[in-house]
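call fold(seq) -> tokens
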Amino acid sequence: MRSVFLAALFVSALAIIGCKPKNDPTEIPKAPATDAAPIGEVTSSAVDAAIEACKLKMTAPEAREWTTYWNPEGIAASGEGPSSVHSVYWANAKEKRSLADSNTAIPLDINCRSEGQPEVAISLAAFSSTQKDVPLAPGTYRIVGKAGGAVKPGQFLAGTLLFNKRVFDATGGTLKIDDFDASGVRGSFAIDGREILAGNAPLHIEGTFEIPCRGGMLESECKANKTVARE
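ret:
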């Protein structure tokens, strides 16, 4: 999937520029697993308790609800948890050059993925957009599917849309960003789609997300990093 490909590119870029996340768990006290910290208050190695990232509610093809998590320690090969967010805004000048060279200088890429069954996975990325098209600010954007042709500037592609091993493609949707800054991103979305490969079942899923800029790879300009550096 495109989001997995992006994660691999981020890892490659990290190796090239020679940066790595801070790893000093004594800098910020550990929070209990039940605490939901405000966006931007933790870095990727600051605590070991996962925090809520996305809340999802599906009404078709089945009625389901999920809460997905962002893992500050990172559990995937890409060095992040099952839900994540990436943005070129959070990279420093050297990191931005690396992203541009690998064609991954994307204003915003949001991933909500559950652990356990039934699985759900959603990725929304502004692949064809520049920082002018998706500014570091609140905004509302159209969500499009892969069958709709080229993704236009200011649109978000639902590159991954999976439910219980079934593959769907978006037929429409809206992404609303309420907060987007050096601390992280918060907002909501609604997606309509159709099953592909097998069947033609309809999909409708809505969700909210609040994911911090974790201060990990290619995210040197995170507010969390600057806060820790001043302490």
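Residues 23 and 45 are 5 Å apart (CA to CA).
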